[in-house]
Design brief:
about 525 residues, 21 strands, about 40% helix, disordered N terminus, five-stranded parallel β-sheet, binds NADP nicotinamide-adenine-dinucleotide phosphate
Amino acid sequence: MTTTTVGVNAGALPAFRNEPVNDFSSDAARRSAASVLKHIQAELGREYALRIAGRRLKTGDQLRSVNPSRPSEIVGIHEMASADLAREAVQDAHAYFPEWSATPAARRIELVVETAAILRRRKLEFDAGRVREAGKTWPEADADVSEAIDFCEYYARQMATLAAPVETLQMPGERDEMVYLPLGVGLIIPPWNFPLAILTGMTAAALVTGNTVVIKPSSETPTIAAKFAEVLEEAGFPPRSFSLLTGRGSVIGDLLVEHPLTRFISFTGSREVGLRIVELAAKPRPRQVWIKRVVAEMGGKDAIVVDADSNLDDAVKGVLVSAFGYQGQKCSACSRAIVHEAVYDEFVAKLQAAASALTVGPSEELTNYMGPVISGGAMKTIRNYIETGKSEGRLICGGDRAPGEGYFLQPTVIADVDSKARIFQEEIFGPVLAVTKARDFDHALELANATEYGLTGAVYTNAPERIELCKKKFFVGNLYINRKCTGAMVGAHPFGGFNMSGTDSKAGGPDYLLQFVQAKSIAERVR
Ligand code: NAP
């Protein structure tokens, strides 16, 4: 284990920099990728136990995760937590909280930095896990692992800042100070689409600030979570500082949220589940002595606005990558292109040609730009939306399954979509893009804002005054100008949305850790 000596001042760690991503266009990287996939083949179908209060447990009630590129291939077999075990996990996390919260911040920082170091050392292996269980292509998988490393490194530095004395005004005759305290037991509930990055980010933030956590991973990607738990253990996190509870959210989710000893919930996922958590958490239960804090980052219906004077080739490229990268299964994915009528026909023609040329197939093959969608259920939902879309606009590309055993869908583009249409308003979370014509730039902006979500958005324009207008009026948590609307980088693009997209907690930003602490102000009379 490498140890980093860390004082609790931010200067003791080197300046944060984003983890570089692997370039899979080189022959060497391709060979390494193939060899790692072969190496992890032996792990397919491995059984993983629950981790509760430092113990490994089996319930006999199992959950199988599969490779969405080849659903007959079982990736991991996991135990489903019962209601009693879920309660036990929260109770033990509460019992261990006094000890973990008293662990010096410098030690907690060390452990998070070590977590990053292990992920970095085993990066290709972790990439391969995402390719297998989440259907990510290699570049998307590598970006997910890089972001996980970034979250650890970034929050380690933020914690160093948070642990340093806060400057307060000194009243005459007093010594005045303010310190940040951890909250207690946190539920960590991530989605499957950034199965390592979001899981790691939320967990690292909660642990480094001194909270104990109960992790309830997505049932689509439990192997990635089990592997992450092994990394936490290897890094040196005390076994009782975290529990890993695989099991259906619909079975144990409510009781975890409602438990009176749960202090906060850090959730990323759908609007539907997020709002349910907000509602359940708001109601105090017998013996509960706090107001539960909920950080809920939810869905998106993200738009890219294309102005009449923009570089159309750049705009098409940006829309394409944002709409079809990881099969459109990013909260930040572009699902609406809103285009000035002066360039609408030309844009649609260029987009149609470019989208039709995208390759779809097993994500482990580097020649495929798109892999599968996550599950048979997701495929069915997306196909239903495509059918709806066909009656709401003009299908210009895709519209069906792509060949193969996996959950493959063609990149689908539907033009001439009205702003009242379901495919303009509802999050589809798949490779489906609606294209809408705007009368002028103001109208385009109005359409972009005409949804209940407000996560990401982008604008392609060369007019400085319209860039300024977007800075003021494009109502999204993450605005991008003349670039794609996906690919937020830790430290540079703090991430979180407005309106029904969530609580705008800004993951990867300087304020994020404040969600996991409470401030105590102390005034001491001095003579
Ligand atoms: P989801 O269905 O809401 O599930 C998210 C997590 O919640 C999973 O771990 C799930 O467990 C759990 N869960 C389900 N029911 C629950 C309940 N009653 N109580 C507590 N937890 C419960 O979302 P998803 O399909 O995994 O992810 C896709 C969604 O996430 C999209 O809407 C996307 O936009 C959003 N997302 C948002 C962001 C952001 O930063 N804003 C980032 C990524 C993704 P099970 O798997 O066992 O059901």
